[in-house]
Amino acid sequence: MVAITVILAAVIGGFVLGLGDSLESAPSSQISVDPAAASAGNSGDGIVAISHNGGDPLPDGDYQIQVQKNGTGTYKTVLEGGTASQVDVDGDTVQIVDNVNPGEFKVGNEITIEVMGGDARAGTYSIQIIHTPSDSIIAEGEAEV
Question: Which one is predicted more confidently, 65 or 120?
Fold first, then answer.
C-alpha cells in the first residue's frame, strides 16, 4: 500500500512539475517604433524604424511583426518565423526594407519597414512585435508616415 502511494505521488509530482517547465514567458525588451530619420540614400519618407533599445534579445524566428493602417482592418504580418513578406495594407505595399529577414533582434539593432505605392506616407501605421513562443505582444507603437 505504501509503495503504491509513493509511486502515485511520484507520477503526479512529475506531471505537475513537468507542466510548469513547458510554459514560456515573454522576453523583457525595450522597443520603440518611430518614423525613420533621413539618412544617406534614404529620404525618411514612408519609412518606419523599429529600434531595440534594451533588455532581452529576440531570437531569429521567435518574433513576428504586424502592421495596420489608421487603426482599421486587421493586422498584416510582414515578418514571421524568420521570413519577411510584402503585404498589402489598406492599398499600400508594406515590407521590411529590401524584404530581408533581420535575424536576431538585439540591443542596438534596427528593423526598417518601408511603405510604398497606393496612399503611401498618408496615414498612421500601428505596428506590433509579437513573441511567438509565448504569444505575447512585446511592443507596439504608431508612426505617422
Answer: 65
